[in-house]
Structure formats: structure tokens, C-alpha cells
TrEMBL record:
Cross-referenced SUPFAM superfamilies: UDP-Glycosyltransferase/glycogen phosphorylase (SSF53756)
InterPro entries, alphabetized: Glyco_trans_1, Glyco_trans_4
One family name in Pfam for this protein: Glycos_transf_1
Species annotation: Gloeocapsopsis crepidinum LEGE 06123
Span of domain Glycosyl transferase family: 26-192, 212-377
Annotated keywords: Transferase
Coiled coil: none
Protein name per Swiss-Prot or TrEMBL: Glycosyltransferase family 4 protein
Amino acid sequence: MRILFLHTNFPAQYRHVAQALASVSNNQVVFATKNQDVSLPGVYKAIFEPSRNPHPSTHHYVRPLESAVLHGQAVYKIAEQLKAQKFIPDVICGHSGWGPTLFVKDAFPNTPLICYFEWFYHARGSDADFDPTDPLNVDDIARIRIKNAPILIDLYSCDRGLSPTFWQRAQFPPEFHSKISVLHDGVDTEYFKPQPGAKLVLPNLDLSGVDELVTYVARGMEPYRGFPQFIEAIAYIQERRPNCHVVIVGSERVCYGKCLPDGTSYKEFMLKKVPLDLWRVHFTGSLPYNQYLQVIQASSVHVYLTRPFVLSWSMIEAMSTGCLVLGSNTAPVAEVIQDGKNGLLVDFFAPQQIADRVDEVLNHPTRMAELRAKARETVLERYALADLLPKHLEMIKSIAG
């Protein structure tokens, strides 16, 4: 079987699927991507790059669409090169939204396309209007609607779609739901497993003597993932618990949502606003997987906050290690965590309540042991890679057939 993957990043959501397919000797796996840095055994990378950036004079509503078209054009050229090399895929798997999938059905009209549908944008009722202190204007509402243009083209042209959670699929127009299967990427529960008594020792950070460790993980330090609220909660936690340390994993950048207008990072802004004992707050930056694993295995309580938006892998990975996750009571989190059953839920906008529930965890380790066990149980039952990877492979094989 010949499989073509399309994603601006590599390997992203397709890591395990591409690796599994490439391990079969009579399969040919090609991955078209912009990322030149990473490689996987048996996976041939076809690097594409848009010919230019969106033009500055393009209407700002339309710039994301122009960017998608430019990415689609770049992939079309790669497709022509692959055809010249006699590579005609039996199936194409591509992430929808950034444009690589836009014209692939024109390049390979007889090849079925499976699109990964991660998010459909709404001005009202999900992430964009969630924060009452950050109201939308007319420009925002119109711009958000237009962001769906490349996704709508993919919804029409793909043969099958998948979304990782029911919440994420629910964002798509109901008339397309029958085309979209809910199938999570899966978490490697053998890798993300409990390590009883684990203490955190990283190359530049030794917290082996710490008994109370609060952790937070996100790609960026930003409002979408509740970073400002978490910093405010730390002030309450430090006031009450003099021996508690906090580890924050992530980059000093904004991945989702708006940057501050003066170019200041949210880390700088919040640390000026909220006085903290920084000797007990540790910013690690982004970490390699093995060190990130050590952080969540050693965690006393892991705080995961998000607007009603795409659910992070990190939350389910933390649960898989038997972490006690204190999550925001928002729809994507509540799909996985039941308050008091396999974790705890808290108001996204309530730093003092976050601190109260951190106290609850640290004051009642015996009661929390049951929630930790249930957290891992939830992942084993619903999100284990060992169960979900065969379903991904079966979907690909059946559609290729």
C-alpha cells in the first residue's frame, strides 16, 4: 500500500500511524511537510515551502485563506513530482485547515482523502467569546467566519474525516457529522505510566527534596491555556504552603489567540503584576519527552486550564501517568474528567478556587489515590494507543480499499 501524509508540521498527529505503516515492508509511506528537522524510520519526507507569504495588501480577513492556497499550491507541486516518480498513493491522510489538503484531490483524483478535522471556528459559543474581558468586535466576528473557508472546502472534497474528541467534532456543521468519525490519536500508556515515589531531577533542576509539587504544561504561556489565572493561583498557593514548588513547562510565546499589543510576553506581564517567590517557581521552557514525562510522574497535582478549544495531549498523558489532574470546567476537559471521580474540575476564571482545590489534593493524599487510579483507568479504557492505533490503521486500509 502507498500512503501519502500531509501536515505542515512533522510528524504531529500522524507519528504513530505513519511509523506503524512504515514498519510493514510492502508499504511505501511519503510525508509531505515543511518540517525538515525530524525523521521517522521508513518514512520518506517530501519537503514543501509556499512560494511566498500572504501579501500585506490582502484584506486581513482573507490572509489565512491566501496562506492556505499558497500551501496547497506547494503541495500540488510536490504531488506532480511524486507522480513523475511513479508514486500514486492508495490513500491520502491530511490535516485540514492550513491548506496542504486543498488541491490534493485535483492532483490525485482517484485517491481517497481522509482529513483530520481538529477545529471549526465560531465567533460565539466556544473559545473566541469565552473571556468576558476580551470582547469581540465586528472585525473579529467576520474574520473568524472566513477562517473556515479552507476547512469547508476539505469537508466537501474529502472522502472521510476524523476528529479526536466528540467536543471537537461538535464544532463542525451538523450536516457533515456523518462524514467525521471520532477517533482520538491515542496515548502510549506503556510510556506514560505511573512511577510510584518519583522525584523530579532534571539536568538543571533538582527537586528531589520537594514533597509538594504543582505542575503546569502548555506549548505557550497564553490566556487560551489559562496561564494568567494559573500565575494568580500560585500567589495564593505560596501564601498557604511554604514548602510547595511549582514547575511550568512551555515556551514564552503565544500559540493560540492574541499577543499583547506592546510585544511583552504573558510571562513578563504576569510576573510584574503578581509578586511571587520565584525561588519556588521553576520555568523549564519546552522539554524533550523523557524530561516532560519525569515532570508529570513526579507531580503532586497537575493543573490543566483551557478555553473551550482543542484538548491538549498533555492532559490525557498526565492522567495516564496516574497524575491528579485539576482541570478547568470547560467542555473539552469535562468530556474526559468527571469531578471527584477521575480528577477535579475548577472554574477557569477563579485563581483562588484553583488554590483551594490544590489544597484539597495536598491535604488528602489517601482520598486522591483513588482518583489517580481512576484517571489512568479512564485512559486505558478510552484513549490507549494500543487499542486506537489498530482502528486508525483499519480505517486507512478500508478507505484505501
